[in-house]
UniProtKB/TrEMBL annotation:
Gene name tied to this protein: ylbL
Similarity section: Belongs to the peptidase S16 family.
EC number: 3.4.21.53
Catalytic function, reaction form: Hydrolysis of proteins in presence of ATP
Organism for this UniProt entry: Paenibacillus plantiphilus
InterPro entries (alphabetical): Lon_proteolytic, Lon_Prtase, Ribosomal_Su5_D2-typ_SF, Ribsml_uS5_D2-typ_fold_subgr
Pfam families xref list: Lon_C (PF05362)
Ranges for domain Lon proteolytic: 258-358
Protein name as it appears in the record: endopeptidase La
């Protein structure tokens, strides 16, 4: 009888130890964030044209990265699972809350969509006009005290007025900044109205001193930098509507669940496919990634290996990748034993040329 009690006690101890270990491995938070392969998503359902072309038989796909906050088991698994890439959470968030990080990703995505539409219109010779809609704080400095202050701007704030006058554009904000009597001095202040979490608020901002000399007459990108510095934030984004002269070529993009700018290239290609006759895909499954500038420039992105894996999982035949990411993309494709072609591009024209070659190959095969 005593032996049975001893055996039961030992078993209970082991069960308790196992429960503690499982809790530590599965439920205790870690200081890490993890990137893993996401999914490849068809862009056609996300891009809506007023009068879409119906000629496409293939697919254009944007690629994503899955981000999560892993448990200790996932952290341990990353030592042998090459699809798990770890970062320190504080390095990824840079002192921001999860909410602020997601707000930044959302603002950047909205700006990227406008850039993609504009780039597609320029590439196809489509007449259009840009209409400023709102001015958003898209990033703040790594200063938790400032971010937590009620008298400072935060990521996601929409600036709706300055000095009592409505502001919808960077130009409007610059006009108010330059009109300050003490612009460039420590004493300069700006009264702004913002919308934060659906609530209108009034702030008195202390402007950064000594930065306005030579700021006037700069291009829009330089002006964005100057304005952000003046307001003591890292970045401002002017959200705008891109309106074509021909209503039949009007475009809307519905991708609110996707964050970041890296879908810009694939959105631009899908738009071109929608507003021009013929099949841009040549009947093939084409994936890709890359930021896009309205002038058609393609920028590098993060998480390229995970996006290659996502494209391979969907059976993509061609993967368009920013030139600076091409080496890593090829290495991942080789690791996977993929037959998918990796094509580096620096501009939207490069991507269109690559797809033109694909269409020619398709015609020759027939």
């Amino acid at each position: 009888m005593r032996g049975n009690k001893t055996y039961s006690a030992v078993g209970l101890r082991w069960a308790l130890l196992a429960a503690i270990v499982m809790t530590l491995l599965l439920y205790i938070p870690t200081p890490f964030a993890a990137y893993e392969p996401g999914i490849a998503i068809d862009t056609e359902p996300l891009v809506r044209a007023a009068q879409p072309d119906e000629g496409s038989k293939g697919e254009l796909m944007l690629t994503t990265v899955k981000m999560s906050y892993p448990n200790f088991w996932t952290v341990i698994s990353s030592s042998w699972d090459h699809d798990i890439e770890l970062f320190r959470k504080k390095d990824l968030l840079r002192g921001k809350t999860d909410k602020e990080y997601m707000q930044r990703q959302s603002v950047i995505m909205r700006g990227s969509q406008s850039d993609a539409i504009e780039a597609a219109y320029i590439a196809t010779g489509t007449d259009y006009q840009t209409i400023p809609v709102s001015l958003i704080v898209s990033d703040t400095k790594d200063d938790s005290d400032r971010m937590n202050s009620e008298e400072s701007l935060r990521t996601g704030d929409e600036i709706v007025a300055a000095q009592g006058r409505k502001v919808r554009s960077l130009e409007g904000l610059l006009k108010e900044l330059h009109s300050r009597p003490n612009a460039g001095d420590e004493a300069a202040e700006l009264q702004v109205s913002i919308v934060r979490d659906g609530q209108r608020m009034e702030l008195t901002l202390q402007l950064e001193a000594g930065i306005w000399s030579g700021a006037e007459g700069q291009g829009i990108e330089a002006s964005e930098i100057w304005a952000a510095q003046a307001l003591k934030v890292s970045a401002l984004s002017e959200l705008r509507t891109i309106k074509p002269a021909d209503p039949a070529k009007a475009i809307t993009i519905e991708a609110s669940a996707i964050g970041g700018p890296s879908a810009g290239l694939m959105f631009a290609l899908q738009i071109i496919d929608e507003i021009t006759p013929g099949d841009l895909t040549g009947g093939k499954r084409i994936a890709g990634t890359g930021t896009i500038h309205p002038n058609g420039g393609i920028g590098e992105i993060g998480g390229i290996a995970h996006k290659v894996a996502a494209a391979e999982e969907r059976g993509a035949e061609l993967f368009l990748v920013p030139k600076r990411n091409a080496k890593d993309a090829r290495l991942k494709a080789e690791e996977l034993g993929s037959e998918m072609r990796i094509v580096p591009v620096e501009t939207l024209d490069d991507a269109l040329a690559a797809l033109g070659m694909e269409r020619n190959d398709e015609v020759e095969a027939r």
